[in-house]
Specification:
With about 500 residues, the chain is of the alpha+beta class. Helix content is about 50%, strand content about 10%. Helix 13 packs parallel to helix 17. Bound molecules: protoporphyrin IX containing FE (HEM). The site of protoporphyrin IX containing FE (HEM) has 25 residues, from helix 13 and helix 17. It is found in: Endoplasmic reticulum membrane; Microsome membrane.
């Protein structure tokens, strides 16, 4: 009696395995897809871009992998990524666990689509464009105040090996605080400490939780000690309360005639009853700016200081340029950036070399689309392998080395270089890129103008990463200490 049942189950299982291993018609090729596991045995989830580069050699620039039973199309190479990401059909964003958990639903910019997404995104772009436009002194002054405080803080620890993350984060968070709330706080104040802790813990949680988008069952079967969902929920709720409190405070102070910070301008639209502009939308945007905007810039700056401390000859060249154009120890301002090609090349080469977001954020097709002869149904998940560009000999003479000359031609800066896309490209390109570029330039150049970065004794100068990036995980440098010496 039992054998017919076992045989039927076996047949069903075999049919399921065969079905799971067949790709849809005209779908991009790729490694075999196994039942339940998909292509996982063929992927190193801690270093997806490395696995992707191997698969690219075999299957070409467009291939597909399966995460569990979900197909993901992976794009490689500058031309292919550009061709796809510039088309509106590829501008969708799949619902992902971390993003919707953090915002308590699909709101803000990163996780939304359609009219809501474009209205919020355009608002942020216009605002950032306005405050960072050359001639707009206000925002640069704010950044320079923070840079001055950072330097004061560094001066207290001259000639000692120090970890830089906390000091950098204080500076970055206060820049964002000014942008969103029109004020700053001292790092010792309780409110600052709370926000710092929330941003830090939420970022950690979101990185760890990226896998739950593909395998939501894990949130049910794994113990809290592994998923850390309760802890994530605690910090998320605290940050929601804080962002809502900021808006209440702003409302009380708002007289309808201020045109200052981001909240003032957003509230103006709320008051006019413009579509998609609500106080909840504003709170979501602020939370997003704090979490995405602080961690990315912080990781990039940590890479910058690490790389430069390991390359004294590069520091020497930047300092020669800064001294010549601005004067030794004199504040370096954004309007000088045109005359500082080597310094600008350093900022760009750090972005290429560090490659902090190797697979960016996942996209989705919003309707049926074709790409290089393949048919991609609506709602297909799309991932770009930016490393395939940032590490390609097609664009870089020494892809594996830190080589600022990659961005220089006859002593001039190459502004838009093919194969370079630290902020993604096309319809979803990072709206914070100009702000981030300014922050990186001002913080880095002003530090180098005053200090020499020196490796700690015994440091072997390894420029390795703490963990290779899987999706939604930023590549960090290995933890390090560095010595700041006054330039004699
Ligand atoms: C060095 C710093 C930064 C890097 C490397 C970076 C990189 C990226 C990348 C790769 C994406 C994904 C693009 C795509 O989906 O194709 C992105 C999206 C985004 N970034 Fe940044 N970013 C940085 C700084 C910032 C800052 C300072 C802000 C905020 C002020 C910001 C806000 C956003 C937002 C809101 C999105 C989502 C855009 C959308 O879905 O339309 N980023 N960023």
């Amino acid at each position: 009696m039992i054998w017919p049942v076992v045989c039927s189950l076996l047949v069903i299982f075999i049919i399921y395995c065969i079905k799971a291993s067949i790709r849809p018609r005209d779908f991009p090729p790729g490694p075999p897809c196994l039942a339940f596991l998909g292509s996982l045995p063929y992927l190193d989830v801690r270093n997806l871009s490395k696995s992707f580069s191997k698969l690219q050699e075999r299957h070409g620039d467009v291939f597909s992998v399966f995460i569990g039973s979900t197909p993901v199309v992976v794009l490689n190479g500058w031309k292919t990524i550009k061709e796809a990401f510039e088309r509106p059909e590829f501008s969708g964003r799949p619902g992902n666990f971390s993003g919707t958990f953090f915002q308590k639903g699909k709101t803000g910019i990163t996780t939304t689509e359609g009219k809501h997404w474009s209205s919020q995104r355009n608002f942020l772009i216009d605002y950032l464009e306005n405050i960072s436009r050359s001639g707009s002194q206000g925002f640069q002054d704010i950044m320079m105040d923070e840079v001055t405080d950072l330097k004061l803080d560094l001066t207290k620890k001259l000639s000692e090996p120090i970890a830089v993350s906390y000091k950098l984060n204080v500076c970055i968070i206060n820049i964002l605080w000014n942008l969103c709330c029109g004020r700053r706080l001292h790092a010792q104040q309780q409110e600052f400490q709370t926000v710092y802790e929330c941003v830090d813990k939420i970022t950690q949680f979101m990185s760890r939780a990226a896998i739950f988008s593909f395998l939501p069952i894990l949130t049910k079967v794994l113990p809290e000690s592994v998923t850390k969902i309760e802890k994530g929920r605690y910090y998320r709720n605290r940050f929601h309360e804080i962002s809502e409190k900021w808006i209440r405070e702003h409302r009380q102070e708002y007289r309808g005639n201020r045109t200052g910070d981001l909240q003032d301008l957003y509230l103006e639209k709320v008051n006019k009853g413009e579509d998609n502009f609500t106080e909840q939308g504003l709170a979501a945007m602020i939370r997003e700016i704090f979490v995405i905007g602080s961690e990315s810039v912080s990781v990039m700056l940590r890479w910058s200081l690490r790389i430069l401390s390991c390359h004294p000859e590069v520091q020497e060249k930047v300092q020669e340029e800064l001294d010549r154009v601005c004067g030794r120890g004199v504040d370096v301002t954004w309007d000088k950036s045109d005359q500082l090609p080597y310094t600008m090349a350093i900022v760009k080469e750090v972005q290429r070399f560090a490659d902090i977001a190797p697979t960016g954020l996942m996209h989705k097709t919003v309707c049926d689309a074709t790409l290089q002869g393949y048919h991609l149904p609506a709602n297909t998940l799309i991932m770009a392998n930016f490393t395939s560009c940032h590490q390609s000999t097609e664009f870089w003479k020494h892809p594996e080395k830190f080589h600022p000359e990659h961005f220089l031609e006859n002593g001039k800066l190459i502004e838009n270089k093919e194969g370079f896309m630290p902020y993604g490209l096309g319809t979803r390109i990072c709206p914070g890129m100009k702000l981030a570029d300014m922050e990186l330039f001002l913080i880095l150049s002003n530090i180098l103008s005053s200090y020499q970065l020196v490796m700690v004794e015994g440091d072997d100068g390894d420029l390795g990463t703490q963990f290779e990036g899987g999706t939604a995980v930023l590549r960090n440098p290995k933890p390090y200490r560095v010595v700041f010496e006054n330039r004699s």
